[in-house]
Amino acid sequence: MLLHEILVAAAREVPDRTALIVPGHPFRTRPAAAVADPSSGPADPSTTSWTFAELAARSRALAATVAERTSPGARVGILAHNRAEYVAAYYGVPWAGRVLVPLNPRLHPREWADQLARSGAELLLGDTDLLGALAWPGGPSLELGAAVTAEHTDAGWSADDPWSGTTFDPAADESALTWLLFTSGTTGRPKGVRLTHRSLTAAMRASLACRPVDPDTVVLTPFPLAHVAGYQVLAHHLARRPVVVLRRYLPSELAAVAREYEVTSLSLAPTMIDALLDHVREGDGLRERIRSISYGASPITPELIRRVDGLLGCGLGQGYGMTELSGNAVFLTAADHRNAATDRPHLYSAAGRPGPGVEIRIVDDAGRPLPVGAAGEIAVRSEQVADGYWQVDTGEFATGWFRTGDLGRLDAEGYLYVLDRKKDVIITGGENVSAREVEAVLREHPGVREVAVVGEPDTRWGERVVAVVVPTAGHTLDPDELVTLCRAHLAGFKVPRRVVFTDALPVTGTGKVSKPALRERVVESSRADSGDARTRS
Fold first, then answer.
1. Do residues 80 and 125 touch, judged by C-beta distance below 8 A?
2. 374 lies in which domain range?
3. Does 223 map to a domain?
4. ∠ CA 467-470-476, rounded to 5°
5. pLDDT mean across residues, the chain
6. Residues 404 and 433 placed together within one structural domain of the fold
7. Closest-CA residue to 322 (of 467, 505, 174, 508)
């Protein structure tokens, strides 16, 4: 299936059904200090609501505009905040036989320019404020709204003849590239990932099979559309259901948005869930309305699961995936969460089981399969695996089994347990320390709201373990108390040698902790510190 065929079929079957809602925040304006920072988002946007027929017409209009300005197979950059036209670009650019290159609006203009240059983009679509912050000598730019509302929209939408008014030949090969997505760079320089029609539609089908969509489902997502999490928008369109896309995440307003647009399901990172629960109030309707929350991007703590159950009482579903897998490939379902809450608590530590069409195995450094229960690198084989990296061959895709760089193990029932990022393993005195294992112990302390563990250079041991902790509001933490907790559960070499307190962890646009930024912060705090564990950044 080609991406635009999802839209063509939906526009024929349910043309007047709402496909997309992007709420505005008319009673909020950006503070004056934020005006100089385009990444903070547009001020006072109005609400946009499109039916499937309207979204199809606008996507086709954008396809025609792009086709006129670029050559077949060209890369087309997009630099924009979350907005309805962004979703039109999801469909429209591949519809024209071109490749969409989403740029994260939170990056520095130098990073945008680098990714545009590396992709060889011929055209850049974007928001006026962001385009103004970027001096791009590589090609022409076009305001995204103008591209979508070009004269081609006047042709309207015809369910009998969906190609009327077009001046281009649509792509016709499922193996053709659709999106060139740069990774978040949590472990190094972002790499361009080659996603195809086939890989994205395979990811959608896996998600819909493991997270069934009800006939009245309305899902809300605040994730940046520049991230692979945007495939969820297309998956719900494949199920012919509306999607509410937030321009930016304001947990204090989510209850009102959920009421107004009859939202039944949320897609959030654990940090977003935590922030939302701080704003849940008796009588706000969230407990009665929200039936499920899907989460990913980072692990969830048992305490947060208990808070969700107590305040919202809704089902939870976890997804494990990455850009190279076109989305989520492994799922811990609502039933798994219910089982974990009763007699199988070990499932809380699991990422889940592979979705349909996904094979998982654990391999050693040479790529050889390891037995059940053994720890090693997670490898995936599936149609949803990307076509490789853009202009880079690092070997991860060479055998047909994509090597994820994550360490994990499989149990006898086929549940996957993600132990750590391979690059996040701390080597101290010749011993390997899983940052995730140390973090899991520290999260059990009620005074720890968030925690991330990294290694910092040490002349004697190579690296030493450092825990960076965000305390729970109202708690005064003693580093020695946390160290004692770790000593009670971990081998001595895994115990943090330093505890750094901070008000917030550095995160990417999707809620993942940015380990490179965190390591820089730890090194800076070390320079200012004599070595005593009582450090606050």
1. yes
2. 314-423
3. yes
4. 100
5. 86
6. no
7. 508
